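Researcher: Going back to the complex we discussed earlier. I've cleaned up the inputs and rechecked each line, so this should be the final set. Can you rerun the prediction on the complete assembly and write out the structure?
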Amino acid sequence: MKIVLAYFYPELLNLYGDNGNVEILSQRSFLRNIEVELLRISPDTRVDSMLMAHVNLVFMGGGPDSSQKSMYEDLLKNKGPYLKDYIEGEGTGLFICGSYQLLGHYYKAADGTILNGAGIFDLYTEHFGERKPRCIGNTVAELSSDILGDQIFKNVNKLGDTLVGFENHGGRTYLGAELRPLAKVLTGYGNNAEDNTEGAVFKNSYGTYFHGPLLARNPHFADYLIAKALKISGEELKALDDTLIHSAHTASKKLKQ
Ligand code: GLN
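Model: Rerun complete. Updated structure for the full complex:
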């Protein structure tokens, strides 16, 4: 088996160790004898449907407003249409914070600039500048019933119902009526500090505010993504010794916000 990971904008969108997610996906695949090919997609990389047809999993990290301003036009014009086809065609993807925001309709930055998004996720995000405090701190959230009830997740889940992480964003994200959240906030702010939702699920793609990097302390979600990406049931993924990681996850649930 082989997994092709496409890491978009690795130089621009990589806050709080987000690139660790790619390392975790690679390492957990490697330990199962799954060959890993990593494609690094920068603004000057040409993307087309031929390239996307080979991709099993897309990853994009977070970035400050300044980085988002540097790449959003390239996303909109050059990569967005192919990403839209990929995601709407059931492709697997993970999008953290700044990139999660840019998959929506628009992101209104702290200085009021509107960055048009790729319009793939039915959501929008606004930063209220000085008028509202940033959402910063440790986070715990309960995964949505859609994921907990998915047989693939049940097959790979040796840990529990929660995601843990760390968030640091000024933008507040509001989901469209049909878009399902990834999780319910137990500790932290999540999408907007108002409605207890965290992240979003659209087909096989996931957006979240959780850095950390997310997958380092959430190996069940990492394996879920690998199984989804490879279109396997998850039972084929050999169990790994995650004792220490499980301890880190459990300890994280007790951290102060
Ligand atoms: N610039 C965005 C915000 O502050 C995203 C930050 C991030 O990716 N952590 O809302």
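Model: Worth noting: The domain at 2-252 is CATH 3.40.50.880 (Rossmann fold).
Researcher: Good, that matches what I expected from the previous run.
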